[in-house]
Protein: Peptidase
Amino acid sequence: MKRTLAFGGVIATAGLLGAGLAAPAGAAGDVVGTPLATTAIAGKNIAAFWFAEGAANLIAATPYDVETKIVAKHISTGGPAADSKPGVVPAIGDEKKSTAKSKNINLPKTSGKVFFLGSDFKPHWCTATSIQAAYKNLVATAGSCVYDTVSNKATLDRWVFVPGYYQGKTPWGVYVGKQAFTHYDFDVYEDGDRDYAFVTVYNGLKLPHGGFADIKKPSDIGSFAEVTEAVYNTYSPWARWKVGSKFYVWKWIDAGRLGDNVGGQGLAYNQKVGKPVFVFGYPSGSHPDGNYAYSGKTLKWSYGKTFAASAAAIKAEELIGVKSSFTGEGALGSSWLAGYKNTRRLGYLNGVTIGVSDTDGNNRYDTSISPYFDGETYGVYSAAKNLWSGSIA
Structure:
């Protein structure tokens, strides 16, 4: 079921969890940590699902648009208030200030798509970005691109991040999610003010070549390692191959840590509303008038100053908006980067898209919406940033 969120009195169609629920397992204060892939074999089976048959599931995935249609209410005065002092976390490799400037917009290497199975058991994707962390293994996106707000189960299934994804190509590998962190208020109450998530990922995985699609005869078994039948039985059908009486599983290559390969954006919180940001994402789908503006195949950007907004229907009173023509499908999870440096392709993550809006009623989306990043956002980030993941190859 698709949720339609609204500003100004239109209720959300998805049911909220009961207000009297106890804190879920893994909750520490206002932070909820939920395991994704907990073992190396589980992680490799998830990656194999996306790599199998020439990356068929990656290619077939469609944009996740569970909460993108929003009727924006612009707040002309006031707006989100910082709950502590403003703070920033520098980007990977940008710990020292850079003074270089450029007028050209060089797209960040950190952006990519997260893929998962939705409640309809079909493959979908959102936008996400690599972000600074102690072990260079952290991804930031919308909370609704991690937690299943449709069925209210814990997390979306078979979750992976693919930076630089393009039509089945995975230039830096596939990064399987290890553990997801979100705010308790989003996990339990689906509070739009807390619709963000930080996910630790294992080292990337690659194959010597494409996988099953390239296996035509036993001599092509170079992508596989011979194992015992007992080990063979622990792998999914996508990740194993039997030739006569011998058993094989996919021979994975460790692609290394996410941050080492593509870098990681910094984080900014408790910032003044009204500052300019670049929004980077993979918008797809059409405007309300039917104009098909974006394909979702390539990374796009927009630019503008943030303004305050609210959404009473989803208990969201501290949102920010920015003028953008992005359509909602695929743009969910897009990174809002403040202080973006074109030469280094780095900045400070200061928001993630959770919806788009047609504010002037002309049947064209003109605004993107994000939660306001405050000290509570930093708290969720802090719970995730020091979690080690390592290699599962």
In short: The CA atoms of residues 252 and 302 lie 37 Å apart. The first strand starts at residue 27 and ends at 28.
